[in-house]
Amino acid sequence: MLTAFDILLIGLALVIMVWGLSRRWSAWRMGQEENRSGDWAGLFTYIMGHKKILKNRNPGIAHLIVFWGFMIPLLIIIMAQFNFTIPPIPAQILSLLTDILGIALLAGTIFFLVRRVRSTRQGGPKKAIFSLFILLLVLITGFFAEGTRLSIVHPKFIWESPFGWLLSIGLPASPIFMQLMIRIHFFAVLFFIAALPFTVIRHLAAAPLNVFYRRKNPRGELKGIALDEGPIGANTIKDLSWKQLLDAEACVSCGRCDDNCPASISGKPLSPQKVIQDILEQMESLARNSVKTIDSTIPPLESRITTDEIWSCTTCMACVEHCPVFIEPMDKIIDMRRYQIMGKGLLPAEAKAMIRNLEIYGDVHGKGIAHRGDWALNLDVPPIADEGLNPEILLWVGCSGTFHPRYQEVSRAMVHILRTARVRFALLGKDELCCGDPARRLGEESLFLKLAQKNIHRLIEYHVKKIVTLCPHCFNTLKNEYPHIRGDSRSGEKVSIEVVHATEYVMNLIEKKRIVPTYPIGKRVAIHDPCYLGRVNHVYEPPREIIKSLPEIQLKELKRHHENGFCCGGGGGRMWLHEHLGRRINLIRAEEVSETEVDLLGTACPYCLMMLDDGIKALEKEKPPKVLDIVEMVASSIG
Ligand code: SF4
Ligand code: SF4
Predict the structure, then answer these.
(1) Percent of the chain with pLDDT over 90
(2) How far is the CA of 273 from the centre of ligand 1 (A)?
(3) Residue 20 C-alpha to ligand 2 middle, in angstroms?
(4) How far is the CA of 71 from the centre of ligand 2 (A)?
(5) Nearest C-alpha to atom 7 of ligand 1 is from which residue?
(6) Nearest Cα residue to atom 2 of ligand 2
(7) Which of 315, 314, 286 is nearest to 301 (CA)?
(8) Domains of the chain, with CATH numbers?
(9) Which ligand 2 atom sits closest to the C-alpha of 124?
(10) What's the pTM value of the predicted model, to 2 decimals?
(11) CA distance readout (Å), 326 to 28, 243, 275, 322
(12) What is the mean pLDDT of the chain?
């Protein structure tokens, strides 16, 4: 029975909890405005199903047990305060359920405690140890109190409290010991409640909120910035949006982002978990010193997150894919890059030539529009500007397909497929500029917008209805980012065009029997999922379906595939940066390919093709697999 003093203590614990939560609320609300709508249905499904958390099996199952082991007894305890009279049998069943869930919760808590204690990661994981220890104290004292009670009132076995009875065997039948356990249990619960906002347990509130406000836009669409108002990128945490700060608040330091980040795995200084934890620590320090601190005295993000870290990111989105609470470390990294480039004018030296090429020539190779048609000499491919064409599709060739000698072969293979299938197609030709992806992912937003606006103007001018792209980066930019941008001042309109990737389109041609793969091209093939096709845009099956449609071929999966696929190291503008820190990412992937023992490696991206080809050659194996674009495989097979 609770005394008036106990009720006072409960009230005090609740007041401290609410005060602490309100402090944290104002800390992440100091971020910039960002429009986000909530999603009750998504939150309900997330909590009930635990699907995203269960992706990492053992900790996922442990979390499921701890969650329900915590919530159900909590509900029963709350209901018990209302003096319901329950018939004996249901009451005994409820008691049995609480007993079983209590043990499950204890097991789950010990699992997490051991995991965190043994973790060799820096910072974050250790923070959870204190909270887990308090939870363990609550559970152990609860069981001890129950065991002692049973040894006093019911020394014989009772089925509705089997674990309590088991404990009662070894516990003294002492009312004083029981009272001691009850008081420690009570104070531990109060401490748990009061400490909630200040420990990792606050994820009970922050994580569902983050899930509620999670991104609804396509994953591949980077948040735009207004260049004429507001901050240009992120210099301090106040330049991040409230949602980006809420992300940091929700981080549970589980390390799944690091476990899948190619930069972390290859020994580069980037750890997405650390980026999030650094932002959180700056938020906490600002909240301690009052959020009204003068802006000029707020330490820059760079004081914790170095430029080596931010330039190591390949924007592969593995961290976004694997975070159990929908945190997006990558968008903070891009905002920090934006500040480096546009705010400070600091661009890694190696990328300068590529950016200059984009500014002057509109392509990453610096060849210019006069040479845009060279790859298709003698192919008689019509530019869309020709009169009376009315093409079914526009083939978007991209900078690599246009200028890179190796990827030009893929462009020609695609032309061969389209001709065989009798598809009416056309090119933008000299009107096609780089889609802007390398500039945008490096943080050069204004250059990206200039390129995008010119392209959009042309697409509108030529009434393009459907685009097929060879490169997944062009595919992502045209499909997910262009619809939110107005064309340049000549048209000023937005585009709404169907965009498909070459693998999707070719698969469709095969299904409709407009082309028939006939000739065998190899025995064993593996597929490398390009990040911007698979993880970012969820196009996993068309490449596989295409391979399966080729004669006499066996498809083998690499160790990491589908959403677990491993980056080639070339995305996010890294194709143009030196890889002088850690191991080369393409070598790590090439080793995985070699382990799989295949004759061919199929991919569907110019960066992946070149990076993996380089990586596999560098391994100097006796019989290395040949790296081909899937489009080339189909073109060879149709003869
Ligand atoms: S986007 Fe990829 S490289 Fe960048 S932090 Fe996330 S996992 Fe690492
Ligand atoms: S960002 Fe997400 S995946 Fe990474 S440590 Fe935090 S909660 Fe875990």
Answers:
(1) 66
(2) 10
(3) 23
(4) 23
(5) 261
(6) 323
(7) 286
(8) 36-212 (no CATH), 237-343 (1.10.1060.10), 349-508 (1.20.1050), 517-638 (3.40.50)
(9) 5
(10) 0.90
(11) 17, 11, 15, 8
(12) 91
